[in-house]
Amino acid sequence: MVMPSSPNSDFSLKSIAVAAFGPSILFGFSQGAMLPVIAISAIDRGADVAVASLVVSMLGIGSLVTNIPSGMITTRFGERRSMVLAAGVSAVGLVLCLFQLGLVLFATGVFLVGAASSIFMLARQSYLTEAVPAHMRARALSTLGGVQRIGVFVGPFVTAGVIGIAGLDAAYTVALVAIVGAGFVAYLVPDLTQDPAPGAALPQKVTTIGMFREHWRTFVMLGTGILLLSAIRSTRQVVIPLWATHIGLDPAQSSIVYGIAGVVDAAIFYPAGYVMDRFGRKWIAVPCVLIMGASFVLMPLTHAAVSLTLVSVVMGFGNGIGSGIVNTLGSDASPAVGRPTFLGIWRELADGGSAIGPLILSLVTGLAGLAVGIVASGFVGFAAAAALARWIPKRTPTIPLATSSSPRA
Predict the structure, then answer these.
(1) Is position 1 within any domain?
(2) Helix, strand, coil proportions of the chain in percent (round to 5)?
(3) Does residue 167 fall inside a structural domain?
(4) Per-residue confidence (pLDDT) for residue 49, from 0 to 100
(5) Are residues 235 and 166 in the same domain?
(6) Same domain for 250 and 108
(7) Contact 368/163 with Cβ under 8 angstroms?
């Protein structure tokens, strides 16, 4: 990492707010609209509970297998075209979900939505990394994560009203309208790259293998912290409803607890980005996972709705202050040439951690019970804190903004 050149003090996030964050909040809203009904729709199409769970997992599988190709796509076509492509792929997936075409095509539709989310978010991150001056990068990427969460949070509430009027499959209509809107706004975003000047050197070829060879230390060292951070984050979404059921709360109470924690989570993204830009990434990354780890350890000590809500709020606060940290660290470490390829590998580490986290909880719970499984997951957070404290520079320097004519593969 290198020290920044003189930052552009006249830049304001407001100047790119619609172009930068409009597509993201609509994309998040689209996913939030469909998430609560995927399992129910699968059962409605003939799946049992186990198969329905597999169908839900297709969303994450689609993202996981598409991260590295997403980098190649974004490198080849640029950020704007990639976002429009992602919106189109997601729209096709939602059409497959909307109509009663059978369980296999429904699962295919869910997979396509997951794959599209990988392309969209990588292109969005790459766009902001180049469009925003380095001294405001964390605020921009924290806001990106925040608006995405707001969209996911609001989507189910709007969908609930529509389902009451038009039935379950109307959720996919709402999601489809939102994703078309996201694609339209992305289409209007200006390209950041320009055609090379006559006589300019041809851009060097960037490959995934070459990128990994060049930056393997970053992927192995700092990437371990990102993997562990993502693991505890994904487990956080599971432990609240599981423990709520364990202590005898009904589904309505469990939803309220989860919702309150979600509000806290979604409300504090910008201050966290400011702290990262002002004092360094470590000031947020390490407390984020320490707080989440401590809340996991405390959760088995709760035995009623109030105490569980308090611990869940602490957990939501820990996760909320880390909004954008994975993207920010990835953008800091990424090279100007081949950035989307680098970020594709980076996202693969994060998604791998998201898959591993619930698996750790499941394995330990099967061996020693839910309480021990939750505590063990908390120690994943402590391990993440140790890795991030070790490998994030003491004061993370921001990176000079890549020029608009950065070469592309």
Answers:
(1) no
(2) 80, 0, 20
(3) yes
(4) 66
(5) no
(6) no
(7) no
- Cβ-based burial of 217 (10 A; exposed 0-12, middle 13-18, buried ≥19): exposed
Do the beta carbons of residue 303 and residue 356 sit within 8 Å?
no
Q: Which CATH number covers residue 213? A: 1.20.1250.20
How many domains would you assign to the chain?
A: 2
d(CA 290, CA 293): 5
150's CB contacts (< 8 A; 6+ apart) are: 25, 28, 266
Domain containing 317 equals: 206-409
User: Model pTM?
Assistant: 0.76
Q: What is the pLDDT of residues 279-294, one digit of tens each?
A: 888 999 999 999 999 9
Query: Are residues 359 and 212 part of one domain?
Result: yes
Residue 261 to residue 240: CA distance in whole angstroms:
9
Rounded to whole angstroms, how far apart are CA atoms 293 and 239? 12
Q: From CA 234, how far away is CA 177, in angstroms rounded?
A: 28
Distance CA 88, CA 129 (A): 23
Give the residue from 122, 100, 114 showing the smallest Cα distance to 57: 114
CA distances to 177, 181, 185, 186, 284 from 84, in Å:
14, 10, 9, 6, 33
Q: Kindly list the distances between the CA atom of residue 310 and the CA atoms of 153, 288, 302, 362, in Å, as whole numbers in the listed order.
A: 20, 17, 9, 24
| Two tokens, residue 3 | 């020290």
Q: Could you report the per-residue pLDDT of 34-77, keeping only the tens digit for each?
A: 877 787 788 888 887 667 777 877 888 888 888 888 888 888 88
| Judgement on whether residues 155 and 54 belong to the same structural domain of the protein | yes
Distance of CA 406 to the CA centre of its chain: 26
Question: Residue 329: how many CB atoms within 10 A of its CB?
Answer: 28
